[in-house]
Each structure stands twice: as structure tokens, then as C-alpha cells.
Write a structure and sequence with these properties.
The structure is a single chain. The chain has 171 residues and is mainly α. The protein is 39% helix and 8% strand. It has a three-stranded antiparallel beta sheet with strand order 1-2-3. Strand 2 and strand 3 form a beta hairpin. The longest helix is centred in the middle third of the chain and has 19 residues.
Length: 171
Amino acid sequence: MQTFIKYALSFFKSDWKLEDYPIRIRYNGEKSPLRGSQPPIPWAAQIVNWWTMVGFGQTKEEAFEDLRRRFNEHKSQHGKLLRPGTKQHIEFAPTIEIERYEQIATDFFEKILDMDYHQCFVSDESSLWDFQTEETDASYHRKINEVYGVDISDIECGELVQIFQRIAEKG
């Protein structure tokens, strides 16, 4: 209902603020790490139906303020905003680069992540942390070094294309 109301009200103005959007705030729990070895982020605030517009924090208030910061950054960089109450159309990142390393990726997913590469969507922007099951970055770094003889500790973003490129160069 909140989504419909915000949508209807959006036709009475054209310069939307965060408060014009339906917002969901949820508690993720104390054991919900965001990425890698970063500490758990228990709260998330998200614009309903705008899946990528989300803020995180240790409290509800911090999550909301992080969402506000991200919203304002998006607004200043892109100018155009989704109409409040409408759905974001998800666009997948390209897979051109990752496909060059399909053989390495298949082996890597099996040996490092204990997953089937062909059962996942992996793009050029996918990160090791998108598939994280370990507690720390260090355990992945150690395992990759043991299996492939490659140090990836300097690839802070954990981007798989960069990791696979390094493995290929070592090969």
C-alpha cells in the first residue's frame, strides 16, 4: 500500500527526495557480513523495488543515513531518478572477459568455492566476495595460493576476472 501511495503522490512533483520513496528497513542479524573480513552490518535500509539502492549501518538510523548518502550521490551523478513506487529494471553486467577464463573459472569454483561454475551467474564485475562462505579474506587468499601458487592479497576488490587473469599468467 505504501508503494502505491508514494507512486500516486509522485505525479504532483518532479524533484523527488528520499522521503518520497517507499523505504524498507530490516535487521539482518549480527552474523551478516557485508563483504570479506569486514565486520557484520546488522541493519539495511532500502528503497522498495529499487534493489540496488540500499544503505547499511550498525543501527537503523545509520542505515537510513547511508541510504540517504547513496541516494544523493546517485541523484547528483545521474540526475534522473526512478519514479517513486516503480520497479527498477535489472541489467546484468557483461560476461565477455569472464568467458575468456571459463576453464580456469570452472576449476576455481570447484576447488576454491566448492561450487559448480555452470550453476551460477558470473559476470565481468563478479567478485570473490559475491560467493563468500568463509569467515575471512585470509582463508581465501591462503587457499588460492596453495592451489594455484598465486598471491591475490593485493586484489582488494576480489574481482574474479583479475584473479583468473593472474592465475592464467602464472599457468
